[in-house]
Structure to design on (373 residues):
């Protein structure tokens, strides 16, 4: 059987050596889900509207700041990223807009959200909290990183780094249908992704990392609302997290060595339902046919820069 | 959504002019102003304005403010 792990840079002889927050979260949720998505390397054929929408939205925000730092005016930069988003959400071959398959995360909602975002926050270049400028003069957006800890490589992509008078902040773009508030932001206090990003920030930058900022947008049918939340990590918490992740990765190595990936049957309903439910609940002799019909290759390699 | 903007959204964006893009941006900015003024309904549909929204718009007009 051909395994994606055989060709991914993040794997060495079948063992994952480079871990991002997605791989970690997937393994924590269910080893079988991890095996199917990362090792076997498959995903549902139907693209998630959340990934499509979120990806295009984050890309627009990041590219706006790249254009601003390259000398474009705020209006020209906005016009360019709106145009790019419209083009990237259009199926030129068929001559029609791409179908987002979601009632709120639509193409119209995408363009509205991009424009409203800059109406909400303005051009955060000379504001008290502004986009950090790297030593090479480029804005600190879409930064890929790899850090080494013992025999593990941790990697990821920082959406943006912000700065004020005293410290740096790792900012991460999120789009959601949920109402923004304490309940929404609380999830990030235990988020693997935020812990990893703050750890990366502490290693990569000379200035202190005060916190991670979750730059959230609530996408509804008729509006987009924005709110920012903050989450912090002490060094003690990071050390504790590293110990937990090391133990988790050790377990994955045992699964790999044994070729057995147990199911976590209590997680099947999480995150709107596991995409592999149809596979795991089918008779084993039918699984390859289901994979051929409903799934495609999943090109997720933590070591590939975006 | 208005007929014009709907038609614009259906067209091939690779063939857009700068004017087309500016129209989209202008439309979305106006939509936001209406949303902040209290109109949470879908654009393009004719709806009755609520009491709060009427008051806000009336005050804005009296004070010569742009929302």
């Amino acid at each position: 059987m051909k395994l994606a792990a055989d060709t991914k840079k993040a794997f060495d002889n079948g063992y994952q050596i480079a871990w991002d927050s997605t791989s970690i979260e997937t393994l924590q949720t269910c080893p079988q889900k991890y095996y199917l998505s990362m090792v076997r390397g498959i995903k549902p054929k139907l693209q998630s509207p959340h990934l499509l929408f979120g990806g295009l939205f984050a890309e627009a925000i990041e590219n706006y700041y790249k254009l601003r730092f390259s000398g474009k005016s705020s209006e020209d930069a906005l016009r360019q990223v709106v145009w790019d988003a419209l083009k990237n959400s259009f199926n030129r071959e068929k001559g029609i807009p791409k179908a987002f398959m979601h009632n709120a995360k639509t193409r119209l909602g995408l363009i509205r959200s991009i424009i409203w975002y800059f109406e909400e926050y303005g051009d955060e270049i000379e504001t008290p909290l502004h986009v950090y400028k790297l030593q090479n003069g480029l804005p600190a957006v879409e930064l890929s990183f790899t850090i080494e800890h013992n025999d593990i490589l941790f990697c990821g992509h920082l959406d943006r780094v912000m700065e004020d008078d005293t410290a740096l902040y790792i900012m991460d773009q999120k789009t959601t249908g949920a109402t923004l508030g304490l309940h929404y932001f609380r999830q990030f206090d235990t988020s693997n992704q935020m812990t990893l990003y703050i750890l990366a920030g502490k290693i990569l930058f000379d200035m202190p990392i005060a916190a991670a900022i979750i730059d959230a947008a609530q996408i509804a049918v008729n509006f987009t609302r924005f709110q920012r939340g903050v989450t912090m990590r002490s060094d003690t918490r990071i050390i504790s997290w590293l110990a937990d992740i090391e133990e988790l990765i050790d377990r994955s190595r045992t699964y790999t060595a044994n070729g057995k990936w147990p199911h976590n049957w209590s997680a099947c309903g999480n995150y709107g339902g596991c995409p592999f439910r149809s596979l795991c609940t089918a008779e084993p002799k039918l699984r390859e046919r289901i994979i051929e019909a409903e799934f495609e290759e999943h090109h997720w390699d933590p070591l590939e820069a975006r | 959504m208005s007929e014009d903007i709907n038609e614009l959204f259906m067209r091939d964006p690779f063939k857009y002019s700068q004017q087309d893009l500016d129209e989209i941006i202008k439309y979305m900015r106006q939509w936001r102003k209406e949303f902040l003024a209290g109109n949470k309904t879908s654009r393009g549909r004719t709806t009755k304005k609520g009491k709060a929204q009427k008051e806000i718009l009336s005050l804005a007009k009296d004070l010569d403010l742009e929302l």
Remarks:
- Chain A touches chain B at residues 78-79, 82-83, 86-87, 90, 92, 95-97, 107-108, 111-112, 115-116, 119, 221-223 (CB under 8 Å).
- Residues 10 and 303 of chain A are 6 Å apart (CA to CA).
- Chain A has ten helices and 13 strands.
